[in-house]
Amino acid sequence: TGALSTLQRQLEIQESQLRRTTSEKETLQKELREREQQLQAMSAKFCSMREERKHGEMMATMERENCSLRETVTKQESKLAEQDQLISDLQSAASQLQAKVLLNEYHIQEQQRAQEAIQSQADELQHAEQQTRVALQSVTSRFERYRSKIIQATFSAAGSKCPQAELTDEEVLEAMQKIINERMEFHQMLKQKGVK
């Protein structure tokens, strides 16, 4: 955005200089027309004065004036050509600045679109994370209920002591394995005695 503002300021400066140069060109063209009119007037005066007695001196004076006017016209034309070249250069520079401004605006729009896409992905990920947290809490709750039922079933058997402190998973597994082993031993003993 800073680069865009700088380019726009440069473009405004170039356009201001272009307007000023164009105004100077118009002024020079006006002066050139005036000089040409003076030259034509002097030429007409020169023609009319040739018929008079002192036309020799007048002719020399008018010739000098004509030369001076021609030099002035030549200078004005040269300066006008320089102004035309300057105007052309300023117009080219203004076009380049305008192109840079448009390019920077395009890049800014691309960055904004990319930022919006990233924000959308972040929102989707956040939503997915929330759903995962809810699912995890549900699974954890079910697991705790299931574990509680296992502990309750394990230590409600005859001869089992109710635990005084919270049990680890290993302790629960050991208690369940003990009950399973005792049951298998009891079942084996009944088979040996012939009891179905």
UniProtKB/TrEMBL annotation:
Listed InterPro entries: CC-FHA_domain
Transmembrane feature ranges: none
Parts forming coiled coils: 4-45, 80-131
Keywords: Coiled coil
Top-level taxonomic group: Eukaryota
PANTHER family per record: COILED-COIL DOMAIN-CONTAINING PROTEIN 27, FORKHEAD-ASSOCIATED DOMAIN-CONTAINING PROTEIN 1-RELATED
Name under which the protein is recorded: CCD27 protein
